[in-house]
Structure formats: C-alpha cells, structure tokens
Amino acid sequence: MNGVNNVTVHAVLVPFPAQGHVNALIHFANLLASRGFFITFVNTEWTEKRMFGSAKLKSQLHYSKPNFRFLSFPDSLPPEHGRTSHLGELFIALVKRGDALEALLRKETGNGIPPVTCIVSDGVMSCTISVAANMQVPRVVFWPFCAAASIAQKYAYSLFSQGHIPVKISEGNRPEKMITTLPGNIPALWPSDLISFYREQFTSDPIYEAVLFESRMSDMGEYVLANTFEELEGREAAAALSNKGCPSLSIGPVFLPNFLEGENSTQSNMSMWEEDDSCLHWLDKQRPRSVLYVSFGSLALKSQEQLDELALGLEQSGYAFLWVLRSDIAQGQAAVLPEGFEERTKDRALFVKWTPQLKVLAHPSVGGFLTHSGWNSTVESISMGVPMIGWPYFGDQFLNCRFTKEIWKVGLDFKDVDVDDGRLVRREEIESAVVRVMANEEMQKKAEELKEAARKAVMEGGSSFNNINTFINDMLNRAKAQSQSFK
Ligand code: UDX
C-alpha cells in the first residue's frame, strides 16, 4: 500500500442505501483505493444482500483488493420491508443507526487494518455525525446530487423558515415565487426545482420531515465533496456547500477516471440487479447514433397506462431503442407491453431488465437517452456526449431535468410534468421528443462539448483531478498527524 512515510489513509465510506447513491460512492472509493487508500465500504445488510446476492454478481465484482473491504450493518427494518419503496421509513430507521455503525467499526479493527482517518458520508446520512465525532475523525460530506440540488437541500431548512417550503405545486413555476437567495451563484430556482419531497402533497409522508431533518444536519462536517465539475456548475457552487469555511470541492464525475482508464474491472457499477450484457452485442449491430436508450434508474415507477403510451410513442418514432424494463417498473409489477408491439418492433428494439449502463451510454450506436434525470444517469450521459429527454419522477430529478434543458442545453423535456407529475404523457409527445432529440445536431454538438469538458476535468491537470489531489493530500497529512500522536 502506498502512503506517506508508510502511513496509510483509511477512509470509511457510507452511502445512503439506494442504487444511485451507492454507485457514486463506490466509484469514488475505487478511485481512492487506486491512490493507496485503505477502504472500508459500509452498506446496510439489505443492500449488501442485493448486491452480492448471486454468485455471478460476486464474481463480477472486482473490488476485492487487499486494501478494500466491505462491511455491513443492519438497518433495523423487518426483512419484508420494501426499503426504497418506503423511503421515509428507511430514512427514519437510518437516523438511529449511528451506534450500530460505530460498534461495527470499533469491532472490525486490528489484524493490520490501519486506524480510521476519515468517514466519507453521503450528504443525507446524518447517522455518521456521532460516529465521526466519537471516533475523533473528520466527517467528509459527499453530495451525490449536482451542486445546485445539493445547495437546495443544504439550505432547505432556511427555505422552510422563509416560507418557500412546503412547496405549493400550483405555484411551482410562478415567476414571483422564484428562489433567488441561494448562494453559489447558481441559477434562480423555481419552487418545483426543490427536492420534490418538499411539496405540499408529501407533508404527511415521513419523507418530508426526514429530508428536512437531514437538511438541518448537513452542516456537520469538516470537508465537503460534490460529484460535479467546475466547468459545469462553476467553482462557487461547490464552495457554497462549505460548512463554516471548511474545504468544499467539486471532484466529479467520480465514475469517469476509472472508466477512462479502460480497466474492465472498474468500468462497472455495483448493481442491485444482474446486468444483462447481451445488449452490448445488439448495439454492436446498430448504426452510429441510431439507438435511443430508455431507462428510468432504480426507483422510478410508471403506471401501466403510461407504459402503453410510451411503447406506442417509441414505435411511432421509427427509431431503434433499447428499453430497460425493470421487473417492478409498472407500479411495483412487471410491465405488460401492448399487444403485438414486440412483434412489430422486433427488428429495431431490445428489452432488458438491467444494463451495464456506463458501457451502453459509451456505445457509439447510442444517440439519445430517455431518462428519469437521476443525477448519476444525467452526469453519465453528459460524460458520454449523449443528449437526453428528461422525464423526472422525484427527488432532485426535476432540477436535473430543467438544468439539462435550459442551462446546459443538452436535453428536452415534456411540458408541465414538473408541476403535474400525474399527467399522462401522450404517445405523440413521446414520438415528437424522440425525433427531436435524435436528429438535433446542435444539441449533439453541445453534448460533445460537455463530454470533452467532463473528460478534461478528470484528466491530469483538470479541475476535478486537482481537487481530488488536494483532498488526498489533506487526508494524508491528517493520517500522518494521527500516526505521530499515537507514538
Ligand atoms: C437516486 C435518485 O433517484 C437520483 O435522482 C439521485 O440523484 C441519486 O439517487 P436513481 O433513481 O437510481 O438514484 O438514479 P440515478 O442517479 O440515475 O442512478 C442510477 C444508477 O444505476 C446509474 O449509475 C446507472 O448507471 C445505473 N443503472 C441504471 C445501471 O447500471 N443499469 C440500468 O439498467 C439502469
């Protein structure tokens, strides 16, 4: 293991237990491991079971290195609990798990494991606050959203005090309600850009109080990292996430350095579903930029009626498409496709349950992405130069979708779905959006520019590359000082 004067930095990484959050932190963990850190990656037992469940998945995982270990702790929910289908209850259970996490870390020491240097915690995992304080190590807040959405979440409690929250969705995009007081030089936000759990309709759901609580707690940390890059959101945006002047840096897209190295072992996400690689062979047979990729991430659901319209819209567009139909996509059930649809589209369509998404987006045959605008999907698409059609579902996705369209200009969306999330999007709208995104040279040009900017940011000398070095050096210095104090 590398280190300064034989000192090894030991980072404990703690994601919120959902696919998008785990993916971002696992890539960052991998990056730190390749720079000589000792990594303890802590999942909940439920997440770990989902990820390591099948022997095949386990063998696909290449994180088993001498300086990388996985640990897990119980979330205290009963086995039959849906976890991500009842996010509020999951949040509330996790808030109280600091003791269990600390006990685990204290138990799993010795045998050459270096002392813990820092705890890199998801920005919405406040249970790590007491752990870091009791273990006397810095809590590094890792924001898995874009900087603007992270700022909106960090300052949500102030917005609540100012009367912006709860958001009346009828006022979601009224000009006089625009939020212009947030720091970081970010664009003014519509109320509908805020994390959707702050909408009036959620006030009786446990998720409302839970995210507000996390907002109040998000000030607790001695270092802040954001999974974005300065060329996309500006330097000031990450700086505005600082807690009382602590370092606060953009270090993303965190998946990209490993991906660019082309090392097969690190190109994959850590998936809760089994990846179906067959789609890559199918893509190999398609023309450049001819395929629309359709996927709504790990949590978004659609009604069966909406899936019917989507299928028929895709068919009417005439374009080839690769569609991820997660087994629970139809409000918890498998989708039923319209009669004859598969037969009619068989020469230009492929349906899979879960893809190796990074490899799909990087494939030259993919020319557009119909996405739920989750931050990972958005930043992955940006990094691969693929224009998007945004169709947000919840959380930070409304902001991501609007910024993709209006600020970064690499996407389209459907009218009013930001303020009327129950609206049925008709097949004609889908057809029109697909045609517009696939044939849009201007958007493709812009997407190429952003792709280059993202890649430049993570390559040697780039903004994120330098910021990661700053973080690594700061943690090395802390580990050195820690080892001196033990002598
Ligand atoms: C959640 C929130 O919804 C998102 O808005 C937030 O920013 C992070 O947490 P999720 O809904 O899963 O995440 O969306 P997203 O952030 O896009 O993450 C999905 C991840 O799964 C991506 O890394 C994507 O590459 C991966 N994925 C998705 C696959 O590997 N295969 C698939 O078939 C679909």
Explain the overall architecture.
The chain has 487 residues and is α/β, with parallel strands linked by helices. It has two domains: 10-268 and 458-485, Glycogen Phosphorylase B (Rossmann fold, 3-Layer(aba) Sandwich), CATH 3.40.50; 278-439, Rossmann fold (3-Layer(aba) Sandwich), CATH 3.40.50. It has helices spanning 19-34, 45-52, 55-60, 87-95, 98-107, 128-135, 147-154, 156-161, 206-217, 230-233, 235-239, 256-261, 264-267, 278-284, 304-317, 341-345, 357-362, 375-384, 397-407, 427-438, 441-458, 463-486, and strands at 10-14, 38-44, 68-73, 118-122, 139-143, 223-226, 248-250, 291-295, 320-324, 349-352, 366-371, 388-390, 411-413. The strands form two sheets. It has a seven-stranded parallel beta sheet, with helices on both faces. A six-stranded parallel beta sheet has the order 10-9-8-11-12-13, sandwiched between helices. The mean pLDDT is 93. The structure holds uridine-5'-diphosphate-xylopyranose (UDX).
Poorly predicted runs of 5 or more residues: none
Oligomeric state of this protein: single chain
The Cα radius of gyration reads 22 Å
Overall morphology: globular
Count helical runs. Answer: 22
Strand order of the largest sheet: 3-2-1-4-5-6-7
- Which kinds of small molecule does this entry bind, naming each only once? uridine-5'-diphosphate-xylopyranose
Instruction: Tell me how many strands there are.
Output: 13
Q: Roughly how much helix do the residues carry, as a percent range?
A: 40-55%
CATH class of the largest domain: Alpha Beta
> What class do helices, strands and sheet pairing give?
alpha/beta
